[in-house]
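Practice problem 4.
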């Protein structure tokens, strides 16, 4: 009988020792899948995670949570307790990772809020008495212009609205519901505005 060669060609390329059995991929025969962690009662989960509270407070403070440190830690504890199969051996790494992520989210929100509050285009400008008066006169001029182009009934409604009358008061005068009167008036005014836009174009 002829001796086996010391090496054979591998189907994946290269050579391997013929005396070494080829490796097979996947799970070996007889292997069992890892068992899932058992369900832990909620009370026990609380007792487990609450013991890490002081360490989590120190961790969140060291990462710059500032005045939101308590809120960050409380949120991390709540998220941990929500897991019924919380691994007792991995509780601290899990809590620490969640806390760090929450602090990072806190920094992102703070940076976004700071940028928005200092954006010139988004900063609220105080309304002066002159601005308020100009807005009122502009509204009255617009109401008079619409009243000139609208049917007499709608023109009267527009003038009354400009004087401060409510839709409920006007509806009682015309014997309609406030919603019906408002809808009818708005449709008429919309048609007039469309006509004005076409004239200007």
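Answer key:
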């Amino acid at each position: 009988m002829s001796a086996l060669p010391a090496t054979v060609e591998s189907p994946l390329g290269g050579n391997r020792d013929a005396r070494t059995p080829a490796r097979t991929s996947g799970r070996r025969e007889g292997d069992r899948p890892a068992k899932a962690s058992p369900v832990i009662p909620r009370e026990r989960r609380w007792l487990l995670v609450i013991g890490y509270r002081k360490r989590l407070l120190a961790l969140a403070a060291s990462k710059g949570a500032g005045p939101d440190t308590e809120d960050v830690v409380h949120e991390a504890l709540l998220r941990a307790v929500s897991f019924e199969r919380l691994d007792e051996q991995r509780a601290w790494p899990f809590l620490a990772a969640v806390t760090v992520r929450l602090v990072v989210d806190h920094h992102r929100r703070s940076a976004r809020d700071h940028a928005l509050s200092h954006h010139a285009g988004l900063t609220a400008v105080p309304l002066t008495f002159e601005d308020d008066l100009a807005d009122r006169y502009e509204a009255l001029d617009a109401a008079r212009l619409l009243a000139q182009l609208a049917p007499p009934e709608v023109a009267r409604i527009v003038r009354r609205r400009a004087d401060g009358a409510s839709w409920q008061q006007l509806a009682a005068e015309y014997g309609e519901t406030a919603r019906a009167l408002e809808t009818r008036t708005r449709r008429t005014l919309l048609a007039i505005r469309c006509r004005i836009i076409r004239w200007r174009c």
